[in-house]
Write a structure and sequence with these properties.
With 150 residues, the chain is an alpha/beta fold. It has a single domain, classed as Cobalt-precorrin-4 Transmethylase, domain 1 (3-Layer(aba) Sandwich). Helix content is 33%, strand content 21%. It has five helices and six strands; from the N terminus they run βαβααβαβαββ. The chain has a six-stranded mixed sheet, sandwiched between helices. α4 runs parallel beside α5. It starts with a strand and ends in a 14-residue tail after the last strand.
Length: 150
């Protein structure tokens, strides 16, 4: 049985990942997700330890460094989804200064290749700490895109 891919938009704050990890931990039975993280943070000596600790405390979440220039982490994510586990992905990639940027093609590829369940989470960044604005459950993406109907 394919896993569960959670797409989080817009990615406009460095607090987005920790907010989602905490949210998933608070939801009953949502633990052990693999988070795709910017390699500058996932491999940094301080941030790697801090994010690993935070993930462990908030539901045993794990992370993989996802470099936009290298598809190797996408294969790890695909294997995770095919094994029936959950993945959290920020499909817009890095560059939080532009919250309206379009998705990178990797999210669409993962959804098509793994045939996993896809959930969209939208965040509200009107406050200092991002808040949940919307969670769409079990909604199929539009054909040819991972954009969801409004």
């Amino acid at each position: 049985m394919p896993g569960h891919l959670i797409l989080v938009r817009p990615h406009a704050s460095l607090l987005d990942g920790p907010v989602i990890a905490r949210y998933l931990h608070q939801m009953d039975g949502h633990c052990g997700y693999l988070f795709a993280v910017d390699p500058d943070y996932a491999r940094h000596p301080f941030w790697r330890r801090a994010l690993t600790w935070y993930g462990r405390v908030h539901g045993h979440q794990r992370m993989v460094a996802l470099d936009q220039r290298s598809p190797m982490a996408l294969r790890v994510i695909l294997r995770t989804l095919e094994a029936g586990h959950g993945v959290v992905l920020f499909p817009q990639g890095t560059g939080i200064s532009n919250p309206e940027r379009s998705d990178l093609p990797g999210a669409f590829w993962l959804g098509q290749k793994s045939r996993c369940q896809i959930t969209e989470i939208r965040l509200d960044h009107s406050r200092w700490i991002p808040q949940m604005a919307y969670q769409g459950r079990d909604r199929a993406p539009l054909r040819g895109s991972l954009k969801f109907p409004q």
